[in-house]
Design goal:
This protein is an alpha/beta fold. It has 2 domains: 103 residues, MutS, DNA mismatch repair protein, domain I (3-Layer(aba) Sandwich), CATH 3.40.1170.10; 79 residues, 2-Layer Sandwich (Nucleotidyltransferase, domain 5), CATH 3.30.420.110. It is 27% helix and 30% strand. The chain is built from 6 helices and 11 strands. The strands form 2 sheets. Strands 3-4-2-1-5-6 form a 6-stranded mixed beta sheet, sandwiched between helices. A 5-stranded mixed beta sheet has the order 9-8-7-10-11. Strand 3 and strand 4 form a beta hairpin. It starts with 9 loop residues before the first helix and ends with a helix.
């Protein structure tokens, strides 16, 4: 006998369509006066933020974990998520709910990561907040960017030299291309908070366009 497909409400259908675009981020989904998290994101958020984990549609086929907080508390909770090493996608309502009879349009308005944050509560005003990018070629290339001050520095050299720079600049996040996962692990292990990006991000054509 075939299993019944899980019923999905219009709201969750919209949520799923947005979440699939940000699979590696914790999605804060604005619903009315609250930012809600669902599923595994809700489990993580409840632990990090010490907020109640409940269930949406409890007992129904569309049951899923749920945890949320008032939208005006974003500046209190966002820093805690980022400092816990989470990449956070903030999904806002893009129209006034009172002006539509259909489901409110929503979209991600900001992606906040440990290395890319402008929120004063996340940043330490006494020190830089560098995002580093490492590229493995004939030599190892590295760049450091602080989006809050505009400082941008680049260098290349041996593994020992690059690691010395990383230790000196203390980036809060290091990005590198997926193809170089093995080289990155061999060079730096898990000593730093890091995130793998698609290989095309590091191509010369894309870099020139950017």
């Amino acid at each position: 006998m075939a299993k019944k497909s899980k019923k999905v409400t219009p709201l969750m259908k919209q949520y799923n369509a947005i979440k699939v675009k940000y699979p590696d981020a914790l999605l804060l989904f604005r619903v009315g006066d609250f930012y809600e998290t669902f599923g595994s994101d809700a489990v993580k958020a409840s632990k990090i933020l010490d907020i109640i984990l409940t269930k949406r549609g409890a007992g129904s086929e569309s049951e899923t974990e749920l945890a949320g907080f008032p939208h005006h508390s974003l500046n209190t909770y966002l820093p805690k998520l980022v400092k816990a090493g989470e990449r956070v996608a903030i999904c806002d309502q893009l129209e006034d709910p009172k002006l539509t009879k259909k489901i409110v349009k929503r979209g991600v308005t900001e992606l906040v990561t440990p290395g890319v944050a402008l929120n004063d509560e996340v940043l330490n005003s006494k020190s830089n907040n560098f995002l580093a990018s490492v590229y493995f070629g004939k030599h190892i290339g590295v760049s450091f960017l602080d989006v809050s001050t505009g400082e941008f520095l680049i260098a290349e050299g041996t593994k020992e030299y690059i690691e010395k720079l990383i230790q000196g600049f203390e980036p809060t996040e290091i990005v590198y291309n997926k193809r170089s996962s093995k080289e990155f692990d061999e060079a730096f292990g898990n000593k730093y908070y890091s995130f793998r990006l698609e290989d095309w991000v590091f191509t010369e054509d894309y870099a020139a366009e950017s």
